[in-house]
Amino acid sequence: MRYALPRGYLSASSIKTLQTCPKQYEFRYVNNIVIPPNAALAVGSSAHKTLETYYNDAMSSSQRLTPKQVGELSGDTFEEWLHENETTMTNEEKSEAHTLLPDMLTGYVEKIGQFVKPTATETEVRFTTEGGVPMLGYIDLMFENEETGEVAIADYKVTGRKMNIGDLSNSLQFNLYAMMTGIGDIQIHNLVKARGKTLPKKPTQDGVTDYSSNLRTLQHNFDGSEAGHFSQLVDSAAKLITSGIFMPCAPDSWCCNDNWCGYWKLCRGKKVC
Q: 119, 111 in Cβ contact below 8 A?
């Protein structure tokens, strides 16, 4: 079957948008209406870019940036992001970001980053499902697992709360990454938007390790047993998009409000003339 995909491929994020609200998918991917990024996206993007720079430097230099240097780098990276992007952030949110980013990333490098042996950052991965759907993904970090000596995948997630192991094992994004790369060892490096306090212990349970009150890693091994399900899910998404019918989500859905959805005024909030 030939699919009519707006960009010629699908990604985990585009499929997730389609699942959340087909109409939102249409606004974003078919009509190319881009909403100015909010504070959450600004902080997350700046953290990602800072860690990408840190690990790239680690691969090209014998001496890594110190935690303090990474903290300073995060502020510069955030300012560069603000210069390059139109945003809805308030001055208060910008000030808060300048406080949170150095705290989160300094702690990350101290407790995790300096012990990681990176092999690649922002790796582009292309894949075609058995049903003929082209897929594209970008992997934040690939590194050598010290215990197995094999390549593993890590993704940075900046969140308002700590994630749990189900957020990893049931994730569309990471199941697709495992299917696309053949790598089953996948981690989330979860940075929480809060000032961090070191924990008295570093307990590890069911793949979850807490390093501080605002830093957690989650690890899961994807064995391929559900690859068929996720491949079928991608094929189904491609068929829905090709149909050109994008029904709005249910009006009582958690995402259907003007605070969460940037397209609300173009959809449910649209006035009838």
A: no
Closest to 23 measured CA to CA, from 251, 234, 263: 263
pLDDT reported for residue 199: 61
CA distances from 217 to 152, 157, 165, 189 (A): 13, 10, 9, 5
pLDDT tens for each residue of 30-72: 999 988 888 889 999 999 999 999 999 999 988 899 999 999 9
Whether the pTM exceeds 0.70: the reply is yes
Residue segments in the chain with a per-residue pLDDT below the cut of 50:
none
First vs last C-alpha separation in the chain: 41
What is the spatial distance between Cα 237 and Cα 151, in angstroms, rounded to a whole number? Answer: 30
Residue 183, CA atoms < 13 Å, CB-side half-sphere: 21
Whether 255 contacts 268, CB under 8 Å: no
Two tokens, residue 17:
């948008």
Question: What 3-state class would DSSP assign to 265?
Answer: helix
If DSSP states are collapsed to H, E and C, what string results for 193-252?
Answer: CCCCCECCCCCEECCEEEEECCEEEEEEECCCCCHHHHHHHHHHHHHHHHHCCCCCCCCC
**Which CATH code for domain 118-226?**
3.90.320.10
Q: Which residues contact 139 (CB under 8 A, 6 or more apart)?
A: 120, 122, 123, 125, 153, 155, 177, 181
Q: How many residues does the chain have?
A: 273
Side-chain half-sphere of 83: how many Cα atoms within 13 Å?
A: 6
CA neighbor of 193 nearest in space, from 112, 131, 101, 108:
101
